[in-house]
Every structure is written in structure tokens, then in C-alpha cells.
Amino acid sequence: MTTVGVGQGFDRALLEYYDCVVADAAHCDTERADFDPAHDFCVGVSVSTQRTGSGDSGGPLFVIDPEIEGRYLLAGIVKGGIKAGPSGPEETEFIRYANVGRLLTWLETVADCDNDMDSVHSCQGE
């Protein structure tokens, strides 16, 4: 899995990325986070310094398509970090993601998208 973003979003910031792994949901399912295991998953590695940062919320998490070489699939959308303590801005190395596969029907309805993988996507929005 690869996640991408521009972090703080400074002008002319380069797009950054890192490879990541799914973590145990317990790392993200805390009283200080909006986490619903029905449609969210947790990503991170203990004591890692690589993770999404402030400004990356809403960004993509991609996986390599096992069927078509060179194609990537959207697997998740960054929801945000997990606060390390009850106060203060510090966050842990674990990040919450919305699971696109579990929310696909809702996303298609809201975006009014044609999900035909053989054609260009058409999204009208609402």
C-alpha cells in the first residue's frame, strides 16, 4: 500500500509518498478518535517516523491491482491521525483511513459516478 500527500501543503510542495501496512484496529479505535471498524481501517508501524501528516486528510491510499500490471486502485481515504494524549497536538504513528471498498456504493451515489472500469469515469457531483 502506498499513501501520498503534501503534508503542510506549502506552495510548490512536492508530492510525498510512503509504503505502509494495515495495523491492528485497536491502535486507532480510541476514545480520542472517530473510528468505526465497520468502514475504517488503521495504518501504521510502531515507532515509525513515516506517516501522513497535518494537511493530508482526504488524501488517497493506493494498492497495486493484482490483475492489471501497472494499475493502482484506491483503497482508502485519510481520515486523520490518533492523538497521543488527551490534550495537545501530538499524534501517534497510526492513521485512520476510510475503507473505500466498504463505502463504494455511498461514494458512487453522492458523486453520481459511472463505475464502469472499461470507460472514463463520469462524475457529476451534487
UniProtKB/TrEMBL annotation:
SUPFAM superfamilies: Trypsin-like serine proteases (SSF50494). This is Trypsin-like serine protease. GO terms for molecular function: hydrolase activity. Gene3D superfamilies: Trypsin-like serine proteases. Residues 2-104 form the Peptidase S1 domain. Its EC number is 3.4.21.-. It comes from Roseinatronobacter domitianus. Keywords: Hydrolase. The keyword Hydrolase applies. Coiled coil: none annotated. The keyword Hydrolase applies.
